[in-house]
Design brief:
alpha/beta; UDP-n-acetylglucosamine1-carboxyvinyl-transferase, Chain; about 30% helix; globular
Length: about 425
């Protein structure tokens, strides 16, 4: 375990180009491994999780070249790989484990999906149920990993997702891509649509429609994919930490170049604005359905406002909630978070760890099973932070530490490398003490 000292900062000023979006990198890597031809993926994520996905695709027979630090090349298997017994090590990545299960379920062979101590306890029944309905043979270990999949032909299904989850949706889409018939997924709350854009980029056909309160997404089976050349947009979830940091300083000025601005992720920008941030979008372009732009962020005059986060907004912000909660004491009106029970089954129990570390820094709050009430107008003090080996907790409380009194020590700071190895280097460059 490595520790990191974070000291109070005077301001936040500067510009960044962030590593590639983790969610898009996962999907491009998997589809490139299934496609025919060689895909060239510039600005691929530097986080450990997407590289776990690349390693899994190598195990399945794709050729991966990472000799150029700015470019990952993946030569795919043209839709099939040699039958065999495969062990796929997903590391810390729930995204890898859940989504790749759908990708491999129709292929002959036996696949054992394993992960580290953090991934192993996470719930996997949510993917087993729909994939089993399609005909997949999937065995869990008491509802968790290790997962054993015996590949067999799949049939299309109509499935309504019981919880909003882009990972579950993606597992079904990837299985449906290779099944017999047309698979349809219904969502009450629309989740991130990176998978839809990625599938179309690689040549797949799928359609979206709406009936009443439900969004329907349909994908015909037995489709073939073709390699692409693409640049992965900068990761907006990684940007969230610096966007929240910019709110803490009246004279802040932050510019983020080539950042992903997908509308299903833009709720974060709406929250930053609601809290008191000023966001200028300087230019926007589109690549394979993904919007990429440069944004400038400042803070409006006066105290930060508060916000109530619940329902569909919670689902859209699930990865960003820890850092939003970490800066809540510095707002004028506080922040209320509900409908976030999913945070308890992430890399850690994120609600419990946020509560523990807010307490360590002297904050008042009320913890609920599905969220937190955090009053505003509080002054935090430096403390020893327990990251729980969770990358988002380590980074979130590094941001809270910027306005605390005294030094803050982040225990297990190396966890940031799971998604954002450059985080502390960038933080130091933007925030002089």
């Amino acid at each position: 375990m490595s520790n990191q000292i974070v000291r109070p900062a005077r301001t936040l000023q500067g510009s960044l180009t962030l590593p590639g979006d983790k969610s898009i990198s996962h999907r491009y890597a998997m589809l490139a491994g299934l496609a025919q031809g060689t895909s060239r993926l510039a600005n691929f994520s530097t986080g450990a999780d997407p590289h776990s996905t690349l390693s899994c695709m190598q195990t399945l027979g794709a050729q991966v070249d990472k000799s150029d630090s700015q470019l990952v090349s993946v030569t795919g298997t043209a839709g099939q790989w040699e039958p065999g017994n495969f062990t796929l090590d997903c590391g810390n990545s729930g995204s890898t484990m859940r989504m790749i299960a759908g990708l491999i379920a129709s292929h002959p062979g036996t696949y054992t999906l394993i992960g580290d101590h953090s991934l192993t306890p996470r719930p996997m029944e949510r993917i087993r149920k729909p994939l089993s309905q399609m005909g997949a043979e999937i065995h869990l270990t008491e509802g968790h990993a290790p997962i054993t999949i015996h590949g067999r032909p799949l049939q299309a299904i109509d499935f309504t997702t019981p919880i909003p989850s882009a990972q579950v949706k993606t597992a079904i889409l990837f299985a449906g891509l290779q099944a017999e018939g047309t698979t349809t997924i219904a969502e009450a709350i629309r989740t991130r649509d990176h998978s839809e854009h990625a599938l179309r980029a690689f040549g797949a056909t799928l359609t979206r429609s709406r009936t009443g309160l439900l969004e329907h997404l349909s994908i015909p089976g037995q489709q073939k994919l073709t390699a692409i050349d693409a640049t992965v947009p900068g990761d907006l979830s990684s940007a969230a930490f610096f966007l929240c940091a910019a709110l803490l300083f009246p004279d802040s000025n932050l510019v983020l170049d080539s950042i992903g601005l997908n509308p299903t992720r833009s709720a974060l920008l709406d929250v930053i604005t609601a809290l008191g941030g000023k966001i200028n979008i300087l230019n926007v372009e589109e690549q394979y359905g993904e919007l990429i732009g440069t944004i400038q962020v400042n803070r409006s005059p006066g105290p930060l406002r508060g916000i109530d986060i619940s329902g569909a907004l919670t689902a859209q912000l699930i990865d960003e909630l820890p850092v939003i909660a970490a800066i809540a004491p510095y707002t004028g009106e506080g922040i209320r978070i509900r409908d976030a029970a999913e945070l308890r089954v992430k890399e850690s129990d994120r609600i419990a760890l946020v509560a523990k570390n807010l307490s360590a820094m002297g904050a008042a709050f009320t913890e609920f099973e599905d969220g937190l009430d955090i009053p505003g107008n509080q002054q935090l003090h430096g403390a020893k932070i327990d990251s729980g080996s969770d990358h988002r907790i380590a980074m979130a409380f590094s941001i809270a530490a910027l306005r605390a009194t005294g030094e803050t020590e982040i225990d297990g700071a190396e966890a940031a490398a799971i998604s954002f190895p450059e985080f502390f280097t960038h933080l130091t460059s933007l925030c002089p003490c």
